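PROTEIN DESIGN WORKSHEET
SECTION A - STRUCTURE
LENGTH: 244
TOKENS:
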């Protein structure tokens, strides 16, 4: 009778929590990590816009099987919106479409307007997004000056609070379900206030049960070799055990 030896767990099956730098795409991080450590499989558990920083969950080896689980978790963000500026991308990376004086807008007015975005709401995704129309990402159509009708998406906002008000800048915290465009929350809020708004900064601080407290910078990661990077990963067996 043939003996089947039990396969030892691969030390590189699991996830790595990265503090994504601004101006990097999520794919940039994936490619850099995959090439640096010669990993065969690397993915991520939820895209961050180039403007955004913070918690990017890299899925490595058999950790890629956790993609749906990681992406499906609720997300927490801290960001800063700029009242009075409307851009084509709804953030500071885009072209300015309109500028208005927002000096008369008070913190109380912003807090009142936020109440319209609590709980179950419908959100129309921005044109500058990776959503596809007939197989083509919307952002590519937007670059050609095209605007396509987008179907609203249902999301749930659990928390939406102002952390600091320093007109025209509003720093806030939001916790919501997957698929929420935080820059659209800022854009729509600005429209409700009659002055427009765009997102100046965004940082993801939580994804499901995972926290920004445990991230590693790209500098720290690239200083590792294949042996030491394993010490920074959360391994598949530990993740599975943690879910029990």
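SECTION B - SEQUENCE
RESIDUE ASSIGNMENT:
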């Amino acid at each position: 009778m043939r003996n089947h030896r039990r396969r030892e767990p691969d030390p590189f099956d699991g996830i790595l929590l990265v503090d994504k730098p601004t101006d990097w795409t999520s794919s940039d991080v994936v490619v850099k990590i995959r090439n640096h450590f010669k990993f065969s499989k690397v993915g991520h558990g939820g895209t961050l816009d180039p403007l955004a920083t913070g918690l990017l969950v890299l899925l490595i080896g058999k950790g890629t099987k956790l993609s749906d689980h990681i992406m499906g978790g609720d997300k927490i963000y801290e960001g800063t919106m700029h009242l009075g500026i409307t851009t084509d991308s709804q953030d500071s990376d885009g072209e300015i479409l309109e500028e208005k004086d927002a000096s008369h807008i008070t913190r109380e007015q912003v807090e009142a307007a936020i109440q319209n975005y609590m709980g179950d709401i419908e959100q129309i995704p921005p044109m500058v997004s990776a959503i596809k129309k007939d197989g083509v990402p919307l952002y590519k159509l937007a670059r050609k000056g095209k605007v396509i009708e987008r179907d609203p998406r249902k999301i749930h906002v659990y928390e939406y609070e102002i952390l600091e008000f320093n007109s025209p800048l509003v720093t806030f915290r939001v916790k919501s379900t997957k698929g929420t465009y935080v820059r659209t929350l800022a854009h729509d809020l600005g429209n409700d206030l009659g002055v427009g708004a765009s997102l100046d900064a965004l940082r993801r601080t939580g994804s499901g049960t995972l926290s920004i407290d445990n991230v590693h910078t790209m500098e720290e990661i690239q200083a590792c070799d294949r042996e030491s990077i394993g010490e920074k990963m959360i391994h598949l067996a530990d993740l599975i055990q943690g879910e029990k």
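SECTION C - NOTES
The helical segments are 26-37, 67-71, 107-114, 138-143, 182-192, 218-222, 226-229, 236-243.
The chain has two domains: 14-72+208-243, 75-206.
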